Amino acid sequence: MLRYLFENTKSIGIIGHQNPDIDCLSSIFAIADISSQLNTDFQIYLKKPLPEKYSFLNYAKHRIDLEIKSNHCKFISVDCANYKRLMHHPDPLKLINIDHHKSNTNYGSLNIVDISSNSTSQLIFKLLQNQNLHISKDLANNILAGIYADTLSLQTKNVNSEVLRTCSKLLRLGASLEKVVKNLNKISFQNLKILGKVLLNSKIHKNYAKSRIHGDLNKDHLRISSYYLNQIPNTKMSVLMTENKKGEVRTSLRSDTISVHELAKKFNGGGHQTASGFEYKKLN
Ligand SMILES: [Mn+2]
């Protein structure tokens, strides 16, 4: 299957979703590695240069272009659920969509969507089986990083024996768990300070933990702060409110046991079962 994608293909463009996460980047780089093994010219496209914290990934130092050129025979998109969310928008007729999201809309001319995979990286590892392609130590490491990140450090409910078997195979191929864990658990100084503020302002109210701070938190800040706020024993949910200068409040909800998605929907928000939120609103 995987080799077939590259047949009669002189060059491909590799793209991912907006604000690419580790799984998306690892998958982009895995496709780059495979293209190079199959002697297909490839070009990696992102919207911004890669931040330094991702430099441990193989191919991170490879040339990255910010604007796509249309002269590729094909494009491969990874880890993106719908066409709108892509960073770049090539002709859908030339597009192969490789993804693991349940909400994938099959927007490509060929769609390899496997919702039983915990990450696109794991899906690519499945596709690599029996293809007579070399899984180098660096490629194995990238795939392990994607799995580790999308399972929130192997903590999500879908981490089963198959996932651990995949990780074990990757370690045997030379991936370094230490390298992945250390690099993915680094917290920037700015994030650490925001986390400090969030925790200092936290209160336990009935059976949920809440915190409210001023300032505009980006996705990374929210992810880290909400994660820790949701770790307090005997609480069922965490509520993190960030207030902007206009006094409007944005709310992030996390829970391991209750569906916060339902609650967020009542405020016209959205997200997942365990992680949801809603945008700035005047509360009170
Ligand atoms: Mn993913």
Give the key terms:
284 residues, alpha/beta, inorganic pyrophosphatase (n-terminal core), Diaminopimelate Epimerase, Chain A, domain 1, 2 domains, six-stranded parallel β-sheet, six-stranded mixed β-sheet, 9 helices, 33% helix, globular, binds manganese (II) ion
What does this molecule look like?
The structure is a single chain. The protein has 2 domains: 2-184, Alpha-Beta Complex (inorganic pyrophosphatase (n-terminal core)), CATH 3.90.1640; 189-281, Diaminopimelate Epimerase, Chain A, domain 1. It has 9 helices and 12 strands. It has helices spanning 2-5, 22-37, 120-128, 137-150, 161-172, 177-184, 189-200, 219-229, 260-266; strands at residues 11-15, 41-45, 64-65, 74-78, 95-99, 110-113, 203-205, 208-214, 237-243, 249-254, 270-271, 275-281. β11 and β12 (275-281) form a beta hairpin. The protein is globular. The N and C termini lie far apart (56 Å). The site of manganese (II) ion has 6 residues, from loops.
